[in-house]
Amino acid sequence: MSALPGLWGLRGLRGLRGPPPALRLPLLLLCLLASERRSWADGNTTASPLTSLPIPEVMMTKYSNLFLESHNISLTEHSSVPVEKNITLERPSAIELTCQFTTPGDVNSINVTWKKGDEQLKNYHVNATGGILYTQYKFPIINSEQLGSYSCFFEEEKERRGTFNFGVPEVQGKNKPLITYVGDSVVLVCKCQHCAPLNWTWYSGNRSVQVPLDVHMNDKYVINGTNANETRLKIMQLSEDDKGSYWCHAMFQLGESQESVELVVISYLVPLKPFLGIVVEVILLVAIILFCEMHTQKKKMHTDDGKEFEQVEQLKSDDSNGIENNAPRHRKNEAMSQ
């Protein structure tokens, strides 16, 4: 401190003054040079394992601005079937998955692994408390390729598995076909529960070949929706060519979800076909009954005619027998009179 007054000087009891203006710039340059040298030395020195962050922690720090999603699954030695949990994501998120396995045995003898589908994962954490074994895997989901199934495995004598299934929200349409008539209008509706897609798009056709509906060039279609999670397609002046599948697509930051609505367009004669079929059946039934009645009447008439014929023949035979019996008696009477 004795050399400082000669350089900076003292002013009463106010303490040390700042450096003169002529020395401020060189001192600033020296400080910057020293700090750069220190940071370069730190960058080339092997970091201590106690202070370095694992790769997932580095990634989570990089994406710390993302919304955090935490999910967990609990397993026991009695879990005979895998435990699954379905999770929907609309936007990029930081994910924290935790699996917990409770066992009365030695937790140190249990092998813990993580997989995404069939791919082995690394840099997950494992710790134990009493008879409970915990494992945690942290990672960000920022695109659709990172969606899918993430599974934790606890291997002892048997393998126990917990699976987290990630996907975008599902779109719900009408399960049954929508039936309407030629010349009418119809409204097809798709909804997404507890979500808000970025936009909706309608297509026509089957799953392999889908044609987007151009509502700006065709006055036949009108697309609107009262809420962000709902879309409505109105089709006017229906014809039989309008029948088929219509697909609604909901676009999210992490991907796309779709659902189909089946439309059936019929003419007004179609509902009459069952009625006409019933009428035809009734007419046939009545005709059959009349034919049976006529046949029965004819058979009865033939039977009556046969009986009358038999009676006439019987009478004729009786008459002829009477004449033959009277002739001998007449001859006998004549002989006796002579």
Q: What does this entry look like structurally?
A:
Helices cover 30% and strands 35% of the residues. It is of the alpha+beta class. The strands form 4 sheets. It has a 5-stranded mixed sheet with strand order 2-9-8-4-5, with no helix packed on it. The chain has a 5-stranded mixed sheet with strand order 10-17-16-12-13, with no helix packed on it. Strand 4 (111-116) and strand 5 form a beta hairpin. It is elongated. Mean pLDDT is 77; it is low at 1-18 and 29-55.
Q: Spatial order of the strands in the main sheet?
A: 2-9-8-4-5
Strand-residue proportion: 25-35%
- Sequence stretches where pLDDT stays below 50 over 5 or more residues: 1-18, 29-55
Quantity of strands, as a count: 17
Number of helices: 4
> pLDDT average, as an integer?
77
Q: H/E series, N to C?
A: HHHEEEEEEEEEEEEEEEEEH
Query: Which structural class do the helices and strands define?
Result: alpha+beta
Which percent range fits the helix content? 25-40%
Termini gap: 206 Å
Main sheet: strands, sense, barrel: 5 strands, mixed
Based on CA inertia axes, which overall geometry fits? Answer: elongated
Radius of gyration: 50 Å
Detail the topology: elements first, then pairings.
Elements: H1 4-7, H2 21-43, H3 55-62, E1 67-76, E2 83-88, E3 93-102, E4 111-116, E5 119-120, E6 125-129, E7 132-141, E8 148-155, E9 159-167, E10 178-181, E11 186-191, E12 199-205, E13 210-212, E14 221-224, E15 230-235, E16 244-252, E17 255-266, H4 272-337
Parallel strand pairs: 1-3, 2-9, 10-17
Antiparallel strand pairs: 3-7, 4-5, 4-8, 6-7, 8-9, 11-15, 12-13, 12-16, 14-15, 16-17
